[in-house]
Amino acid sequence: MKEKLWEALKEVLDPEYPVSVVDLGLVRGVDYEDSRARVFLTFTSLGCPCTEIIKEDIRSRLLKVEGVETVEIEEVFEPWSAEDISPRGRMILLQLGVT
């Protein structure tokens, strides 16, 4: 089930760039138990204006996964850095002119 959750999260894009929250390194972990998906999430900054949009997009997408009835999102305060971006995410950002 965790694999399905990760795949679904790859479809959730950052509101500012067409890069998934997984490729941006925002998702720090997922868990599943008794029809409940849990996502551990950090943000690029504490003042990120898109936190609620991202959380709602994650919740909406995961509720479409068969077997998921509830979604809990736990914000973790692990500092994010550009090193957290996956190679795929870096390629997309470079194509957009973001360096």
Helix content: 25-40%
Annotated CATH architecture = 2-Layer Sandwich
How is the quaternary structure best described? single chain
- Beta-strand percentage range: 15-25%
Number of strands: 3
Low-confidence stretches: none
Strand order of the largest sheet: 1-2-3
The major beta sheet can be summarized as: 3 strands, mixed
Please state the structural category: alpha+beta
Radius of gyration: 13 Å
For CATH, the homologous superfamily is named as Fe-S cluster assembly (FSCA)
Mean pLDDT: 93
Look at the structure and give the CATH class.
Alpha Beta
General form: globular
CATH fold field value = GMP Synthetase, Chain A, domain 3
Q: Report the total helices.
A: 3
Helix/strand layout:
Layout: H1 2-9, E1 27-33, E2 36-41, H2 51-62, E3 70-75, H3 87-95
Structure in words:
The chain is an alpha+beta fold. The chain has one domain (1-96): 2-Layer Sandwich (GMP Synthetase, Chain A, domain 3). It is 29% helix and 19% strand. It has 3 helices and 3 strands. It has helices spanning 2-9, 51-62, 87-95; strands at residues 27-33, 36-41, 70-75. Strands 1-2-3 form a 3-stranded mixed sheet, with helices on one face. It is globular and about 40 Å long.
